[in-house]
Amino acid sequence: MRVRSTIWKWLAGVLAAVLLGAWWWLRAALPPLAGELQLPGLQAPVSIVRDAHAVPHIRAQSAHDAWFALGVVHAQDRLWQMEMNRRIAGGRLSEIAGGATLDTDRFLRSLGLQRVAARNLERLDADSRAVLDAYAAGVNAWLQAHDGPLPLEFQLLGVQPQPWTPVDALAWLKVMALDLSANWSDELLRLRLSSRLTSAQIQEFLPPTPYAGPLPVTDYVALYHRLEPRLSALGPAVPEAAFGLGSNNWVVDGRHTTSGKPLLANDPHLALSAPGIWYLVHLQAPGLNVIGATLPGVPLVVIGRNQRIAWGMTNTKPDTQDLYIERIDPADPTRYLAPDGARTFSEREELIEVRGAEAVPLRVRETRHGPLLPDARVQGTLPPGYALALRWTALDDDDPTFRAGLRMLAARDWDSFVDALRDFRGPQQNFVYADVDGHIGFIAPGRVPLRKPENDLLGLAPAPGWDARYDWDGYIPFEALPRRLDPPAGRISSANDRIVAADYPYYLTAEWAPPYRGERIAAWLSARARHDVEDFMQLQGDQRSGMAAEFLPRLLALASAGDADTRAWLQRLRQWDAVTAADRAEPLVFVAWLRELSRLIYADELGEMFAATFELRPTFLANVLDDRDGQARWCDDIGTPRIESCAEQVSAALPAALADLRRRYGSDERDWRWGAAHPAVAEHRPFSHVAWLKPLFELRTPVGGDTYTVDVARHFIGREAEPFAATHAASLRMIVDLAAPDASRFVIAGGQSGQRLSPYYADQWALWATQQYLPMSMREADYRRGAVGELRLSP
């Protein structure tokens, strides 16, 4: 027994030593936040003070050195994220993930985002290129100087980072543009639906928002069938990735604030990730003093303020993408048909390296419109002899958006701010603006195509590529883009909803966001005579669902009582105030009810396409339940001989929802909580897809809100495993007080560091989830208070 005890003690000691050594090794990957570091490429010494949450405040003697130092801190804290971003942009995920990401790589290689970025770089001005060069030099200087282990992801995957380049930065901006542009996916969905539904049915299922009746477009289903009868037998829809399409911003002038100066707020809604998409920073150098949110890998403060102005942005949701059905020349497959006859495809060969397998060749073809989508993206959509090409403003060779971002940082007033945004190409954004002189403004810059008067598809569905009437006819002039300065009401807001009046002479889109968030924000701002920072904090955290408040009376009016449990829930829902708090059960039951109702209303019509289209569609459902233009016919189950009414389907959906909730969360309904079923989930790439690593890297916390609250927490009911989990939310919250700019506040969903063992990996996560903020101060005395270190760089 004594020998066995001795052996166990020895083994325990060895294990402890191994674990301690592993811990030390992994901790050694964390960057130094204090001390001195010599880096070639600097022009003069630089100070980097990390405040209490490790937000770097960079003080340099030149703009070159400030951007260089930004590259250093990005590499220190987010090197793996930058590596993943570069691989996404370049279609190189399969090099580390194997065959599972081949379709994604084929799609991104076909778009050629890095190639486009390289062409954009060639056309950029010298000042912009100098900033990109200085930033890349800072990233690479850190890679050369760091002699410890790399972050854990590099070690587990056996990846070595390559030098950062200016093209990598511009290519990531293209990926962000893609993330904020979903029209091509909607067009593809309409094409697929044309095999099962009429054009009128598709318009009902995918209605314009705000709804004012069907759009005046041609019967494109009949058009497709005339072009090619085989288009009536397409394959099932393939689920598309969720796009980051939401955001809120608003600004009020001094007439509506307690201070007499403007207040501005912004919270962009994007996919949650660990680490988060944003990185907070303060840059100070001659001619440069700005604080806000950056994208790791890109030398820009995208959202923030300088000493005189502040700005925030939301996605305009413009239609800047069109799909074209290209007809391959039957006599020569290297050519396709155009209005002036057959033209030759532009072709290139690529080779996709695949971890653990042979490299996969890829032939990329382009037409006069743009690249052909690879087969995996159009699977079953087109018969042989046809292909789909993508026309997209972000693929243009001339894109000085980066220059616009740089010039914006130096703007001192409205005129210089607007002048900077002349170079902004996309994706089109709704900028709100405020300055210390008391002005507020709004502008929506970006490159938006002009469609010809004879274009009877309006970019809603794929167009015949050989018909010239569907070609773009230039772009909306910058001077004609929506803008306003100091409006009489003294308030401006946007929430991806409609930003132009019905008489605006240009077509932007028919797919605005539903008005719920926008209406709630506008009502809140007008309901109070004077606002302060705390008011704006409350509004950013507002969890009253306008969709629930509007929609629930429809359900209650149609629902029959049913059994005792159903009657009890109907009574609770009648008393519910539509606040989607995490500790309430009513939001869970309401959303589950809508989920089952959606299934009953359109699963029969869509058949095998239902799974790919299963999500909350409130405008469509409202039109059906209101029997707008006879749309109550969707309530009938076409698989039965009798005709079901909407009242029957609404009544059947609630007990079905309750049964599903019991299966998921237990039979004791007293334990049901919206927050437990609806956690905010920040996914790690790629370790959220590795079972034993997921709990270590992924972030989760119960939250309130829903897809339509100001405090957005967007869920996707079609995800069977977790239909209520919130995967898109406010990735950043910022409130700027132009009366006392250093009293402004911001917070990100996660933390500054991308390294899991860092105390700053998730130190803002709980703050973010509970509507708390960090100080957004440029004042040295403020950020040095509680600072965790100062790193001094020297040449």
TrEMBL record:
Top-level taxon of the source organism: Bacteria
Gene Ontology MF, one: metal ion binding
Subunit note: Heterodimer of an alpha subunit and a beta subunit processed from the same precursor.
Name the record gives this protein: Penicillin amidase
One Gene Ontology biological process: antibiotic biosynthetic process
CC cofactor: Ca(2+)
Catalytic-site annotation from UniProt: 247 (nucleophile)
Organism for this UniProt entry: Plasticicumulans acidivorans
Annotated cofactor note: Binds 1 Ca(2+) ion per dimer.
Keyword Nucleus belongs to the record: no
